[in-house]
Amino acid sequence: MTMYSAIFTDIDGTLFKSDLTIGERTKEAIRQASANGMKIVLCSGRYITGMERASEQLGVPVIYAAINGALIKAGDKYLREHRIGSGIYSQLAGFVKGKVSSLIAFCENRYAIDANDEWYTLQNSICGDTGIRMDISDPDEVERKTGEKPYKILIKDNDCDKLKRIMKELKERAGGKAEIISSGWNNIEILPEGTDKREAIPIVADYLGIPVSETIAFGDWDNDAGMLEAAGLGIAMANGSEKAKEAAAHITLSNNEDGIAAALKKFSII
């Protein structure tokens, strides 16, 4: 039987239930795994401060793989810092400005947002009150007002057809200088070139001194697929996208049914 040493988990739609809390069975399962010596790695499109709601609920030491793996931090040690280039940032942000409901620049601990009251309130409910409302199209201005350089741009709108058109155009305009992905039905992410959650697996495994074969990954959406493929054992949630499920070796219960806890028990991790 394979021994596992680290658990990598997405947050929204995976670790979190729909109400943005962690189920009691999942909390207890992860706490038990941590007490048994397993390392817990949170992998999310969120920035680090936005991920702390999860780490605080778990109450165990975690490693952060934030912004879809562009920023990886273990304690005070940065394992990866990969920011989007200012030129391609300005070009793509300028193209999208005014076309969508919400345009957000994610930094390490804060975000800048160009949106109306409704979308601003929604973003705060997800990530906490760490945002600044402003025109985000100039990365230097974002840095000046937040005190941090931006890593990515998050686009949100409930018009799925419009997002599909914008995503196609963004990929053409990016020309390989940025990654254009989706982490949910109503969003598009503009990430630094070469950014994928799959990169977090070997980087963190090397830091921990363990083989990749001893890693487990949980995810639910398209942006989790690479991580699920790269891990020693990739597990998709029942509520996950088809791409995530196809990339996984196993499908567990949904996020609202404590799917992580169920899988950890099934594979005798706890």
TrEMBL record:
This is HAD family hydrolase. The keyword Hydrolase applies. InterPro entries: Cof (IPR000150), HAD-like_sf (IPR036412), HAD-SF_hydro_IIB (IPR006379), HAD_sf (IPR023214). Gene3D superfamilies: 3.30.1240.10, HAD superfamily/HAD-like. It comes from the Bacteria. GO terms for molecular function: magnesium ion binding; phosphatase activity. SUPFAM superfamilies: HAD-like. The keyword Disulfide bond does not apply. GO terms for cellular component: cytosol. Keywords: Hydrolase. Pfam families: Hydrolase_3. NCBIfam families: Cof-subfamily (TIGR00099), HAD-SF-IIB (TIGR01484).
